[in-house]
Amino acid sequence: DLSRKKYFSSTYEGDHEITSLTGNITEMAGSPYLHLHINLAGSNNIAIAGHLNEAYVSVTCEIIITVIDGSIDRFPDDEIGVNLLHV
């Protein structure tokens, strides 16, 4: 909710297949900062999409991470209410 500068989370129970997982791992205030987007599909083949905050893998999750040269930090932008990249 951009007007309130607030994220809302949803919880989904049961088994889902990860159909897409993208994002980045940066740093903020010296600690790792994950910004992940996920698409999931349940047994009904209906997709769910959004930010991934937490997940439990029941069978497998194959992830490839590409490392870039240099470092990327984040900083909070109080005007728009999100943590922005500092490249």
Overall 3D shape: flat
Give, in spatial order, the strands making up the sheet with the most strands: 1-2-3
Backbone CA Rg: 15 Å
Largest sheet: 3 strands, antiparallel
Binned, the helix content reads: under 10%
What is the H/E order?
A: EEEEE
Strand content: 35-45%
Number of strands: 5
Query: CA-to-CA gap between the ends?
Result: 26 Å
Low-confidence stretches: none
Structural class: mainly beta
Number of helices: 0
Mean of residue pLDDT?
A: 91
Describe the structure.
The chain has 87 residues and is mainly beta. It is built from no helices and five strands. The strands form two sheets. A three-stranded antiparallel beta sheet has the order 1-2-3, with no helix packed on it. A two-stranded antiparallel ribbon has the order 4-5. The protein is flat, with a radius of gyration of 15 Å. The relative contact order is 0.25.
Which secondary structure elements does this structure contain, and how are they paired or packed?
Blueprint: E1 17-28, E2 31-41, E3 47-51, E4 73-77, E5 82-86
Antiparallel strand pairs: 1-2, 2-3, 4-5
Give a quick summary of the entry.
Helices cover 0% and strands 44% of the residues. The chain is an all-beta fold. A hairpin with a 4-residue loop joins strand 4 (73-77) and strand 5.
List keywords for this structure.
87 residues, mainly beta, two-stranded antiparallel sheet, 44% strand, flat
